[in-house]
Design brief:
about 375 residues; Rossmann fold; 16 helices
Length: about 375
């Protein structure tokens, strides 16, 4: 039982429980893993475990400390996250001094969402880094006498976005940590953390959630089973991404995938160019959604392989398109799925390497057509 609604990661939860049980709480930890794997939520859970006033091994949820922690309002919890950096701001000043009331209110709303859903990201608009004045403010607070019993705990979200001065300032805190305090750095990019900081932190890896765990979670959220396989694949184990997909029209991915495959199958040049233009515009507007549509296309070929192999329909990603994919597999019995899949992956890779997007998409569509080995219609 956890205070926050967390998914699996039992091995890590057991580790944190034993750390407290054996009175071996370290000064600093590095929780790392892919986005949405739960490292941020478990950092908050650890803060609750260290400050719960009951004698149970897990947070009781009913004491004053747990109630405050549940709303991320406990005096012993400090959170650090990327914020916009003001050019005219002094490096020793309050990091939020130049913020407007509206900006402060927006950040408070983002933190409230984090309290309700520990997988939600603290994404402040226009924030790209964690500035040094944020770290200096945290240093000042952690060295003050605690107003509440328990452990002071500082959670640094997206720690890989610490500026170099901020990282060096944080390193000085780790060299002389305040008494009865611990720091947790959470990151999806461990390679961007300074080696000198890494050497002072105990690492704890959070792997991406398995499809089964994510499936159980989505079923509890009453997500239609016909959409779950696609959501799981598109989210790649990222719970927050999965929840975002739940709140969108997931059917648009299916309909666009079907439309693209029909255009490729009959090689409708006009439609192909229209898709190149629309996908290019989408890439500039929403890179994540662009990648998800291309992945959705790649899943079409994956499903076609499974249908040809007479696998169980429940395993299909595009379960709602089973009939259409079946007709495709019948119309193009000699299609090369591996060439098709690599064509989509290469397109994403080319674009990430700044290859001209329209050229990359045209090349992908042509290769998809080549993979069919015929011009038969769906």
């Amino acid at each position: 039982m956890t205070l926050f609604p967390l998914i699996n990661q039992k091995k890590n939860l057991d580790f944190l429980t034993n750390v407290i049980k054996n009175n071996r709480v370290g000064n600093a930890y590095l929780f790392y893993g892919p986005e949405g794997s739960g490292s941020e939520g478990f950092a908050l859970e650890f803060a609750a475990m260290l400050n719960c006033q009951s004698e149970s091994e897990s947070p009781c949820g009913s004491c004053g400390a747990c109630k405050k922690m549940l709303y991320l309002e406990h005096g012993n919890l400090e959170m650090v996250y990327p914020i916009p950096i003001r050019k005219d701001q002094n490096s020793d000043s309050d990091p939020f001094k130049k913020f407007t009331n509206a900006e402060i209110e927006e950040i408070q709303e983002i933190i409230q969402k984090k309290a309700q859903n520990p997988y939600s990201k603290i994404s402040v608009p226009k924030a790209k880094h964690i500035p040094i004045n944020f770290i200096r403010e945290i240093k000042r607070k952690t060295y003050l006498r605690a107003q509440e019993s328990g452990w002071k705990l500082v959670v640094i979200f997206d720690a890989h976005l610490l500026t170099e001065p901020a990282a060096n300032a944080f390193l000085k805190i780790l060299e002389e940590p305040p008494e009865k305090s611990t720091f947790i750095l959470s990151t999806s990019n461990i390679n961007a953390i300074l080696p000198t900081i890494l050497s002072r932190c105990q690492p704890l890896f959070f792997p991406a959630l398995s499809p089964n765990h994510l499936r159980d979670y989505l079923l509890k959220k009453n997500v239609p089973e016909s959409h779950i396989n696609l959501i799981i694949r598109l989210s790649a184990g990222d719970v927050n991404q999965a929840l975002n997909l739940v709140d969108t029209d997931i059917g648009k991915y299916e309909s666009m995938t079907l439309a693209i495959m029909r255009a490729v199958a009959v090689w409708n040049v006009k439609n192909i160019y229209n898709y190149v233009e629309s996908l290019s515009a989408l890439y500039r507007e929403d890179n994540s959604q662009f990648n998800q549509i291309l992945l959705s296309v790649s899943f079409w070929f994956r499903d076609a392989i499974m249908l040809k192999s007479q696998m169980e329909p429940e395993e299909l990603v595009h379960s709602n398109l089973q009939d259409e994919i079946g007709k495709f597999a019948h119309a193009f019995p000699e299609f090369d799925p591996y060439f098709a899949l690599s064509s989509v992956e290469n397109c994403i890779d080319f674009i990430n390497r700044n290859v001209y997007i329209n050229l990359a998409l045209l090349n992908m569509f042509f290769n998809l057509f080549q993979s069919l080995n015929s011009r038969k219609k769906l």
